[in-house]
Amino acid sequence: MSITIKDVAKETNLAMSTISKYMNGGNVRPKNREIIEEAVKRLGYHPNDIARGLRSTKTRTVGIVVSSFDTHMVQILNGIEKTLRANGYFPIICSHRDSLEKANQAIHFLMEKRVDGIIVEGILTSQKYVLPILDREIPLLGLETITDNLAMDYVVADGATGSYQAVEELVKRGHTKVGIISGPEGYYTARERLRGYLRVFEDYEIEVKKEYIIEGDYTYQSGYEGICRLWKLEQPPTAVFICNYNMCLGAVAAINQLGIHMPAELSLVTFDDMEFSRIVRPHLSSFRQPLEKMGIQAAQILVKRMNGDYGDFPKKVRLKGEFISRDSVRCV
Amino acid sequence: MSITIKDVAKETNLAMSTISKYMNGGNVRPKNREIIEEAVKRLGYHPNDIARGLRSTKTRTVGIVVSSFDTHMVQILNGIEKTLRANGYFPIICSHRDSLEKANQAIHFLMEKRVDGIIVEGILTSQKYVLPILDREIPLLGLETITDNLAMDYVVADGATGSYQAVEELVKRGHTKVGIISGPEGYYTARERLRGYLRVFEDYEIEVKKEYIIEGDYTYQSGYEGICRLWKLEQPPTAVFICNYNMCLGAVAAINQLGIHMPAELSLVTFDDMEFSRIVRPHLSSFRQPLEKMGIQAAQILVKRMNGDYGDFPKKVRLKGEFISRDSVRCV
DNA sequence: CTGAAAGCGCTAACAG
DNA sequence: CTGTTAGCGCTTTCAG
Q: Which one of B34, B120, B129, B223 has the fewest beta carbons within 10 angstroms of its own beta carbon?
């Protein structure tokens, strides 16, 4: 098999424990230091992290459980990965595609791998499936969701304020008939974004029409269908707010398909600003979540916990984003 | 600490090895079976995978090293993850952002974690940094790249044929002045795609103009600049072939910015079909790589190797994609 | 500072 | 089928 610490010990006529100490940055007599260094290099010795983890119960590894890999997630992951690695940790990323079973598998896999901490994203954060993590007292952080009854840290974007800004933009420009294609009710983010929408109408004392509220499911398809349904109404809205990226893709496709002129006939603002927002014509006004920053923050907090610092536990971070005004909204 | 196999043994008055056997699916007397099951559940016992890996030298884990997380990679990863998990393996994903140092770190991390196999993607597949993997005889597969002198499996999309198809579409519709914004020369994929472009002109006996060949670097920025440079030419091309997704985003942005009418003034085809291709107007004609399939194939081959099956080693899979004709090309 | 010895949790051999 | 024993590669006491 491969070279072990024993081999190095034999080679140098030193004890295993001395080699071990050296490998972990401990103090060793300068002369031995050199001898060891030389032998390690010559033999091509690499400590076996598995064995090391077995003793020390620290693996310098953190588990990330996401719903799926997509354009949106990727930016968060970039932030997480960067921060984690800067702190000497490595991420193990699993996806569950909103399947409770896969999520459970992933969690158990990660626990068996003895990760030092876990970040979970999306709806499944809620409820029982994270309980075993808490039981084992593994630091746990929720991303893009909050469950009030669980003692853990959270990082979310301020969706209510974000959607408030987006919808207010519409209202300020004179729109009163404003539709929304929201996310599925079970999602924390969806509820937040809907809340922001509703609050605008409350604040501006405009009546909200039930038929303008379409519950989508965050997929391309539901964005597409949402627009179709809205457009078929006797009195279609003059503006619409789309609650996430994928649905926006579908919505724009439907708008093109139906030959609706944007923004002349229909104004649009969207949550989740993406590269294509400024490429499609008209350029889309949108609310940009600080995705990478969310990842960075999440990782930072988790690192803190893994270092045993529970000073501000449990922490709920709600990051602000920014509204970007482009050309998809007209004044009425 | 947590519950170990010893605890279960004590609880059931059976030997550790019996529990172990049961946990690994071995045959156990029905009565004991029940007893064990019950105790495992009651105690909440989960085998420690670290310890297990230490003994068995199998970790059921495979390392994935990618250049970065992006829209394109995500689809490949989906295929990999799905296939791996269906076979009982879990991926550990690392990115290196084209930094040789980070790539090395990642490789060592994965080897220390004793992964059963590794998939590497992108340019850095080449050369020395994968050598330690081969040395240790860990199954290794290269994705989106090929290095001829290394004995390992590869999965790539047939970029030459893909770009041939894309460019031929242009030529068939009467374009002779065709520009290309290619990838950086060091990339296997970039060379392949350029090769396809050149071969079309060879086959159709059309002269290629040097100034129509712009070497980009696969980024948004370079796509943008590429169009600008092409458009400034005394005799700008009437069509352009963009070699990847990010550059295409940039190219379309530039086309809009410059007020170039597409396809009237400039036709465009692109490598990498993405959702936005059929949303932007005009819809983009493009070559679609079978990204998810590439991931699936890669994982399948690796699984085979990890099972000790080296029957067809080394295997080089070159997957065909499809050209999708939309509205961004006009006939001259 | 160095070395000897014990043991992390598990599986692999081998008896029984 | 079950139990005993040894040991994976490393770290961690605890003497020296």
A: B34
Optimal mutation site among A64, A82, A268, A275, interface B, most CBs of chain B within 10 A: A275
DSSP result, B266-312: -EEEEES--GGGGTSSSPPEEEEP-HHHHHHHHHHHHHHHHTT--TT
Nearest to A46 among B61, B91, B111 (CB): B111
Does residue A41 reach within 7 angstroms of strand C, measured from its CB? no
| CATH number for the domain harbouring residue B27 | 1.10.260.40
Q: Average pLDDT over chain B, rounded to whole? A: 91
The verdict on B203 and B148 lying in the same domain is no
Q: Same domain, yes or no, for A166 and A277?
A: yes
Spatial CA neighbour of A136 closest among B113, B99, B45, B185: B45
Tell me if B325 is assigned to some domain.
no
Residue among B92, B284, B287, B52 at smallest CA distance from B193: B287
Is the pLDDT at B123 greater than 70, yes or no?
A: no
Within this chain, do residues B41 and B110 fall inside the same structural domain, yes or no?
no
What percentage of chain B reaches a pLDDT higher than 90?
58
Which among A243, B82, B139 is positioned nearest to B74, based on CA atoms?
Answer: B82
Residue A292 has pLDDT above 80, yes or no: yes
Structure tokens at B243: 């070699």
Regarding whether A284 and A173 lie in a shared domain, the answer is yes
Whether A1 has a pLDDT exceeding 90, the answer reads no
- Report yes or no on A330 lying in a domain: no
User: Within 7 A of a protein CB, which nucleotides of strand C?
Assistant: 1-13
B55 has pLDDT over 60:
yes
Helix axes A16-23, A30-43, angle to 10 degrees: 90
pLDDT digits (tens, 9 = 90+) for B129-150: 888 888 878 899 999 988 888 8
Residue B55 CA and nucleotide D7 C1' are separated, in Å, by 9
Distance in Å from C6's C1' to A41's CA comes to 29
- What domain range includes position A9? 5-55
Domain assignment present for residue A331? The answer is no
User: How far apart, in Å, are the Cα atoms of A174 and each of A18, A206, B310?
Assistant: 76, 11, 69
Sort out which chain B residues have CB atoms less than 8 A from A92's CB and list them.
Answer: 90, 92-93
CA distance A202 to chain B (A): 34
Kindly give the pairing relationship between strand B61-66 and strand A322-324.
Answer: unpaired
Judgement on whether residues B82 and B102 belong to the same structural domain of the protein: yes
Q: Are residues B182 and B113 in the same domain?
A: no
pLDDT over threshold 80, residue B127: no
A255 with A197, same domain: the answer is yes
pLDDT in tens, B78-87: 999 999 988 8
Which residues of B are less than 8 Å from A73 in CB distance? 74
Question: Across the interface, do A51 and B54 touch by the CB < 8 Å criterion?
Answer: yes
C-alpha A172/C-alpha A331 separation (Å) is 9
Please compute the mean of the pLDDT values over residues B174-184 and round it to a whole number.
Answer: 97
The chain B residue lying nearest A256, using CA atoms, is B279
CA closest to C2 C1', residue? A18
Q: By percentage, how much of chain B surpasses pLDDT 70? A: 98
Of residues A105 and A188, more confidently modeled:
A188
Domain count, chain A: 3
In CATH, what number is assigned to the domain containing residue B65? 3.40.50.2300
Q: Same structural domain for residues B172 and B274?
A: yes
